[in-house]
Amino acid sequence: MSKTHRLYAITHSLYSGRARSYLIKHQIPFQELSTGHESFKTEVLPKGKLATIPTLVTPEGEVIRDGAAIIEHFEAANGRPSRPTGPKQRIISALFDVIGTDGLLRPAMHYRWNFPEDNLAFVRYHFLHSQRDTPERAEKTEAMMNRMRYAAMIFGVTEHTQAVVESLYLDYLEALNTHFEQYPYLLGGRPSIGDFGLIAPMYAHLGRDPHPAKLMQQRAVSVYRWVERMNRCDQDVPEFFNAGNDFVEDDEVPESLMAVLRVLAEDFVPETLAAADAINGWLAENKPEAGAPAVGRLAQAPGTASFDLRGETIEALAQPHRFYLLQRVQDDYASLSETEKVGVDAVLTESGMAALLKASLSRRIERADNLEVWA
Ligand SMILES: N[C@@H](CCC(=O)N[C@@H](CS)C(=O)NCC(=O)O)C(=O)O
Predict the structure, then answer these.
(1) CA–CA distance, 74 with 290 (Å, rounded to integer)
(2) Residue 51 Cβ < 6 Å to ligand 1
(3) Which of 11, 42, 228, 365 is most buried, judging by how many CB atoms fall within 10 Å of its CB?
């Protein structure tokens, strides 16, 4: 595969980090362009359907919008190099994909938007350069930044919840650091689908914006190194003497990773259960037609869901996309033999994530023509 792909993305975008890292790690040649290029509006958007990044244009001219779909495109064509074969590791990897792309939006947005003295100039540079070069560029930049500040709030970061968002993030960072002191990637010597999902919030926001990057450098060197590692095409493991270059043997999920999941479960599980209820209520009432989009612009979600976290109530947008990704975990689980299910159940129960297997929507979500749609 030597022909160059075009990746419409930008350095400071959360979801772009996942697709970019995948392309780098699999040595797929690409050129990165911002959506400020005229070609995005004229050539790509009509086929991509929504103006989101990442969007990939293959050398043959196929347009693929959405990071999960971009990765699936290459995984399906190349024998699934990033999917562990053991059922426990496979399920945990797919779960990290959901958590990374949907479960860490609160800390990502909090540490970007609520420390303007450290971050604002840096962030503004990037927002400006993702806009087309028109007379309205500066105005559009401010409007886009305001939209993202608002997004932080509707994802559940408010004056009242900031302290719990921080305390949970710091506990997670510590657990993840302990894990990466022992293993270069989530499941051993090579990156899995879960690593690519997790890099989304951990690169552009939490590992690169000045305030949280410093926090990570000072408190979690091994996490910082993994963030660097995920953006290098080699294995990048000089600090390990016995890294190996495969997933951990015997389908084992390291205890240090279970500890990370236990922290993440604290908000991911109650939020997912509450969001499933909210969206199911909306589905019962609105009965969207089969084929109607299940994805839209920010704040067009079916509603919000409330749940408790460490003594605070958090209200956050209930977004169907989480369930599109979770469906993949649940489908994989459903395909396992009874013996395999027993092993996976044990890992999910010990990591506090078991309830997710039943957190489903009353309607499935499918992909059609670059959109997620209701089945
Ligand atoms: N499900 C999509 C989400 C992509 C997404 O929302 N990207 C953000 C940037 S990180 C975006 O383009 N936002 C623009 C908008 O919502 O208008 C994916 O995983 O690629």
Answers:
(1) 28
(2) yes
(3) 365
Q: Is the CB of 50 under 6 A from ligand 1?
A: no
pLDDT, mean of residues 263-285: 97
pLDDT in tens, 178-224: 999 999 999 999 999 999 999 999 999 999 999 999 999 999 999 99
Question: Across residues 301-310, what is the average pLDDT?
Answer: 92
Pocket probe mutation, ligand 1, options 53, 144, 322, max atoms within 8 Å of Cβ: 53
Kindly state if the Cβ of 324 falls inside 6 Å of ligand 1.
Answer: no
Distance CA 261, CA 83 (A): 19
For domain 5-77, say whether CATH 3.30.420.40 is its number.
Answer: no
Half-sphere exposure at residue 79, Cβ-oriented, CA atoms within 13 angstroms: 2
Q: What is the mean pLDDT of residues 225-240?
A: 98
Question: How confident is the model at residue 302, as a pLDDT?
Answer: 81
Does residue 31 surpass a pLDDT of 70? yes
Q: Is 55 touching ligand 1 by the criterion CB < 6 Å? A: no
Banded pLDDT at 298 (limits 50, 70, 90):
low
Q: Which candidate, 254, 256, 59, places its Cα nearest to that of 176?
A: 256
Query: Is the distance from CB of 323 to CB of 176 less than 8 angstroms?
Result: no
Q: Is the pLDDT of residue 1 over 60?
A: no
Judge contact between 12 and 208, C-beta under 8 A: yes
Q: How far is the CA of 61 from the centre of ligand 1 (A)?
A: 21
Average pLDDT, the chain: 96
Is residue 94 helix, strand or coil?
helix
Three-class SS state of 278: helix
Phi/psi of residue 98, each to 5°? -70, -45
One-letter identity of residue 139: E
Would the pLDDT of 132 be above 80?
yes
Six token digits for residue 119: 């971050």
